[in-house]
Design goal:
The chain is an all-alpha fold. It has 2 domains: about 1-170, no CATH class; about 175-230, no CATH class. It contains 9 helices and no strands.
Length: about 230
């Protein structure tokens, strides 16, 4: 159970596909003009990611190594087609807004990378959890971007009544996407570096007797919690 939780959290924190690994940026930048479009793209991508991970992991032992990439692409393309047709049938407006970026899920780096790096080497359960974790990490990144851009560029959130009287239109244009993603990545890197620095400081202050102790990690975690409480 602990490993499953760790795999899920990796996709959100340590290996966030957008904010940490910086892959799959094309749909993130293009489909985050509004929060609604961002949610739609993230759900579509997560569905394809989870389903392709599931199928790849299930048949990984019978896929010849020499043709594994074409097989992965066929699997991903199948689920992308399903998503595209379902969206056209039940959410035509969203489908029109996302445009060509729904079919382009086929070549999304995140999905192909997880099929190759994780699903092809791990069990079905772990692969599904990995897909959910990566999908949720993608959701957090693109929806955060969509909310910020829509609020600053249109003055609304999820197509609500205008909140800002004089929004900055540039934020819903391509330059705005680059500005916001740059700020988000910088913030994440700052927090990551601060956590690493604090952990390194704690480890350096531990007595020499702690080396090799099985309780070392627990002590470090407790010290970090005490530091946070003390402010």
């Amino acid at each position: 159970m602990k490993k499953i939780i760790q795999i899920f959290l990796n996709g959100i924190l340590k290996e966030n596909p957008v904010l940490i690994m910086a892959i799959g940026l094309c749909p993130v930048l293009a489909c985050s003009t509004t929060a609604t479009d961002a949610v739609g793209m993230s759900i579509a991508a997560t569905f394809v990611l989870v389903c392709s991970n599931f199928i790849v992991s299930m048949i990984r032992k019978i896929i010849p190594t020499q043709i594994r990439i074409p097989v992965f692409i066929v699997i991903i393309a199948t689920f992308t087609t399903i998503v595209d047709y379902v969206m056209q049938a039940y959410a035509p407006r969203l489908s029109d807004n996302l445009g060509v970026f729904v079919p382009l899920i086929v070549v999304n780096c995140i999905i192909l990378a997880r099929a190759e790096a994780f699903a092809y080497k791990n069990s079905v359960v772990h692969s599904i959890v990995d897909g959910l974790g990566m999908g949720f990490g993608f959701f957090v990144a693109i929806v955060s971007l969509g909310i910020i851009r829509e609020f600053l560029g249109s003055g609304t959130i999820f197509n609500s009544k205008p909140i800002l009287s004089n929004p900055a239109v540039i934020m819903i244009l391509p330059p705005g996407a680059f500005l916001v993603i740059g700020c988000l990545v910088t913030l994440v890197k700052y927090i990551e570096n601060k956590v690493k620095k604090d952990k390194k400081k704690i480890v350096s202050n531990l007595p020499s007797e702690c080396e090799g102790c099985t309780m070392k990690l627990i002590c470090i975690g407790q010290l970090q919690a005490n530091i946070k409480k003390s402010g």
